[in-house]
Amino acid sequence: MAKVLMKGNEAMALAAIKGGCDAFFGYPITPQNEIPEYLSYHMKKEGRVFVQAESEVAAINMVYGAAGAGARVMTSSSSPGIALKQEGISYLAGSELPCVILSVMRGGPGLGGIQPSQGDYNQITRGGGNGDYHVLAFAPETLQETVEIVKQSFDLADYYRNPVMIAVDGLIGQMMEPVDVETSVPKKTIPPKDWAAEGKSGERGKRNTVVSLHLDPYMLEKHNFALKKKYDEMVDNEQRFETIQTDDAEIVIVAYGTVARIARTAIEALRRDGVKVGMIRPISIWPFPEKAFATLGEQSHTLLTVEMSLGQMLQDVKLANNGKRTVRFYGRAGGVVPDSKEIIKEVYDALGRQSS
Amino acid sequence: MLLGHYGSGKSEIAVNLAIQKQRNYLVDLDIVNPYFRSRSARALLERHGVHVVESTIENASGSDLPYISAQGRRPFIDSTLNAVYDLGGSHAGAKLLMQYVDLVKTFDEIDVLLVVNIFRPETANADQIIQLIDTLEAVGQFPITGLINNTNMLNETDEAMIFQGERVLQTVSKQKNIPIRYTIVEETIKTTRDFCGEQLSLTRYLAKQWL
């Protein structure tokens, strides 16, 4: 199919339909409202399920129910709404239920504001729910990449039997860009969902149960080890990143999402000035793409982490760097988007030089 | 008055028209979108002598409260003022027009223009566009008097795409007897073709370069 011009939120919603989403449960919150709005009529047209729940908590528990019955399900929200869903996300991970969660981040903490932010990095990568669990989390940069990741995420969720989160800042939700929603994406082989509680215990001859409750500590520990094995597999196989002009880079910017877009503009300008600068762009944020840092040459002496938050991804960059290079940080918060000029200044500061 | 599906480009066109046509007022009636609203070009517009009317709580970029200042009525009352009205997307945005219907002395002085980009999936063909016209006229209670061809793919736009949009809009124009008033061509695009209506060179003020 030819490209169309879409708004980020609409494109994610359409990608979910293309990815085989059977049911959507959500509750409105700015700046992601176009997702439920779009799905409210398009899911019905496709003969699928759309429910506007009475709250975010209700929506995530509906996701639990439908996922437990074997359906491909999705919910979406923005920062404080995702916070409300954390209990349900922990239960989904604990019960090994696949689902897709779209997180369109705005300024926080608390109710915060409605302008774009990346302040939920820790919420997403460390998890706000209880227990030893992770969600597989991606943070795309363009609408095309977002669409392709949303489409794949239903397969990834089913393959790992785990929640998958796609996190974008509000700008990617609200911006427009040409997209082709029909491009092919990698597929996983999904075993039949013989674990699902879909109401066929009569035919099957045994009852399936979906629980996260294991009262025997040794049984629960065994369950935890089994989950850990899946997370280790994700760390091995699902790290995604892009390196941009890092071959000769002395200074390497680390940025994702909208900030990576702005950093590209900064890099173009700096390269015109003869500054050897590149970028590591994490696409997966959990697992964090530590493999990317092993690709850097000896000439890369400084990493500059730039975020629309105040040093959250910075911790992962420091862990991946393991003390090897100087790590610097620049961040804006609360819905303020950095300008490319601010990044350019930070690069010159890091090099101890003035802009020419 | 600029109407259209959301994402059709109304706000960028509103800002450009207000500046190029030296309007006194730009009335931003968008209570649907949280970002990329014409009011965010306020400083620029004021420099060009365009007064921006927005929410009753002015300069609150973080607010999506649906309050519209009563100043939006002034151009209907004071006939020396001319204005551009930028509506929010789709039928929900067009509803806000109803509040002005009773103030209209004559429709002759009001252009109600539908902004269309055929690369938006909800307005991709003549049937969808005609359906949108019928819905917006029913909801807003203002007759649509002209079409704006804003067919674009942002940075990937070329002349052939604009022409492709023009052909679709010509069908709409014939069926609904509504002229194409403007064709929008971003300033970065070179054209040799003579498009329908007035060609309006567009500067992107709301979407930044990296968008």
Detailed description of the structure:
The complex is a heterodimer of chains A (356) and B (211). Chain A is an alpha/beta fold and 356 residues long. Chain A folds into 2 domains: 4-237, 3-Layer(aba) Sandwich (Rossmann fold); 242-351, Rossmann fold, CATH 3.40.50.920. Helices cover 41% and strands 19% of the residues of chain A. Chain A has helices spanning 8-18, 34-45, 56-68, 79-84, 86-94, 121-125, 143-160, 170-174, 201-204, 217-237, 257-272, 291-294, 313-321, 340-351, and strands at 4-7, 23-26, 49-52, 73-78, 99-105, 136-138, 163-169, 176-179, 241-244, 251-254, 277-282, 284-286, 302-307, 326-331. In chain A, the strands form 3 sheets. In chain A, strands 3-2-4-5-7-6-12 form a 7-stranded mixed sheet, with helices on both faces. In chain A, strand 13 (302-307), helix 13 and strand 14 form a beta-alpha-beta unit. The termini of chain A are far apart. The mean pLDDT of chain A is 97. Chain B has a single domain (2-202), classed as Rossmann fold (3-Layer(aba) Sandwich). Chain B is 30% helix and 17% strand. Chain B is built from 7 helices and 8 strands, in the order E-H-E-H-E-H-E-H-H-E-H-E-H-E-E. The A-B interface holds A 3-7, 10, 14, 30-31, 34, 107, 113-116, 170-171, 174-178, 261-262, 264-265, 335, 340 and B 6-7, 33-36, 61-64, 117, 119-121, 124, 152-154, 156, 207, 209-211.
Query: Which runs of chain B of at least 5 residues are low in confidence (pLDDT < 50)?
Result: none
Counted beta strands of chain A:
14
Note poorly predicted spans of chain A.
none
Terminal CA distance of chain A reads 46 Å
Largest sheet of chain B: 5 strands, parallel
| CATH level 3 topology of the largest domain in chain A | Rossmann fold
Beta-strand segment tally of chain B: 8
The shape of chain A, in one word, is globular
Beta content of chain A? 15-25%
Shape descriptor of chain B: globular
Please summarize the sheet with the most strands of chain A: 7 strands, mixed
CATH fourth-tier homologous superfamily of the largest domain in chain A: Thiamin diphosphate (ThDP)-binding fold, Pyr/PP domains
Strand order of the largest sheet of chain A: 3-2-4-5-7-6-12
Looking at the structure, the CATH topology of chain B is Rossmann fold
Total discrete domains of chain B: 1
> What is the residue-averaged pLDDT of chain A?
97
